[in-house]
Amino acid sequence: MKSSGAAPRILLDTPFLLPTLGISVSGAIQEGIEIFAETESEIYHSRFSILESLWVAARTVDDRAFDDEGFGPGLRSIVEGGRYRQVEEDSEIFREAFRLFRRGHKDMIDNILYATAARLGLALLTVDDELRKFVLAKRLKDVFISVKDLVALAREFREARDNNSSQSRS
After folding, report:
1. Looking at the whole model, is its pTM more than 0.90?
2. Chain centroid to CA 38
3. Residue at 1 is within a domain
4. Total domain count for the chain?
5. CATH no. for residue 25?
6. Is the pLDDT of residue 1 over 70?
7. 4 found inside a domain
8. Residues forming beta bridges with residue 84, ordered by sequence position
9. pLDDT of residue 169
10. Residues 95-132: b if buried by 16+ CB within 10 A, e if exposed
11. Which of 6, 13, 97, 103 has the fewest Cβ atoms within 10 angstroms?
């Protein structure tokens, strides 16, 4: 994804919501979360990612990866805190998600997230290579942003901020 100078509008795939809910993640997901503030991104979530997060929580509730005390406040933070914006899916998004299903991608939550990003002009932050490969193989619109792209954007924002700061002192 190329930078246009404006803060990116990013729809989060479900794994990027999990740490806020007290569910441990690692690797690229954790790295992506840590650099959001540096990019001044507008962060969006889908109610369907909340549903998928509940499924993950139900599977991990007895594991060390789940923080029972952090789950409620994290859920409130996502849904009511104001940092995350909830997308509003319309019937066309659901129709497109079903078309993706019929074309061969069987994960309906991923289909909804992709269709949402494409329709609303959002970048979809995901580490789901299967979805990305499917979309590209079908020659559909590339709406994806990777953690690597996010790191590059954070560097650009830091450099622009530093340049503005040094110019204002001159």
Report:
1. no
2. 15
3. no
4. 1
5. 3.40.50.1010
6. no
7. no
8. 43
9. 67
10. ebbeebeeeebebebbbbbbbbbbbbebbbbbbbeebb
11. 6
Residue 37's identity, in one-letter code, is A
Residue 2, pLDDT above cutoff 50? no
Residue 2 lies in a domain: no
Confidence label for 5 from pLDDT (cuts 50, 70 and 90): low
Is the CB of residue 112 less than 8 Å from the CB of residue 93?
yes
Give the domain range for residue 121. 9-169
Q: Is 149 part of any domain?
A: yes
Q: Where are the alpha helices (DSSP H) in 41-128?
A: 47-60, 68-80, 91-103, 108-120
Tell which residue, 29, 10, 11, has the closest CA to residue 109: 11
As given in the structure block, the two tokens for residue 23 are: 């569910």
Q: Are 76 and 27 in contact (CB under 8 A)?
A: no
For tokens 């930078």, the residue is 3
By DSSP bridging, strand 84-86 and strand 42-45 are parallel
